[in-house]
Amino acid sequence: ALAHKVSLSDVLNMVSAFRSRDQQTPVVLMGYLNPVEMMGYETFARRASEAGVDGVLTVDMPPEEAGDLIAALGARNIDPIFLISPESTVSRFKIIAEKSQGFIYYVSLKGVTGVKVIDTDAVAAKVTELKSFTALPIGVGFGIKDAESAAAVASVADGVVVGSAIVKRVAANVKDPEKTIAEITSFLAGLRQAMDESGKNNRA
Fold this sequence. Notes:
By secondary structure, this protein is α/β, with parallel strands linked by helices. The protein has one domain: Aldolase class I (TIM Barrel). It contains nine helices and seven strands. The strands form two sheets. Strands 4-5-6-7 form a four-stranded parallel β-sheet, with helices on one face. A three-stranded parallel β-sheet has the order 1-2-3, covered by helices on one side. α2 (33-39) packs across α3 and α3 (41-51) packs parallel to α4 (67-75). The two termini are 23 Å apart.
């Protein structure tokens, strides 16, 4: 995105274009705080609302420091979403559960996204623990790279978050948009089928 000079304004324009065709599918923006700060919280919240954004996850914004951003988003009915890691303490669970809306994103692995193998039993135990602090859905991400891992996570979580596996497919076919669309459509269809067969009505 940086190499092609894609800005936050460009992303919001993409959301607007998507909303012209689809008013039902929730849209959550996930990224770093700096572009939001540069635009200004109030301006960002207004433009995100006008574009049709439903939720915002700023991965480097601790909930303890997010009061102004939460207020700006809340005034526009946009959900602030926060991450919980495997190493988060119980006290941190409580803070994040209190500040979050929409859903909570549980990071299933330590380290870099898109690598390693998910321990489904460990994820299930953590999701159960989190649900003792919140009624919000728990989405699980990191390490979900194929239908098998998506189905495994879907069996224990409320939502499955897939990022790196999609980005890699875009990067591999960046000069061929039609091939990119076909590749990602097929990939997501496989994930959806596997998740449906897991027996829970999850979102991906």
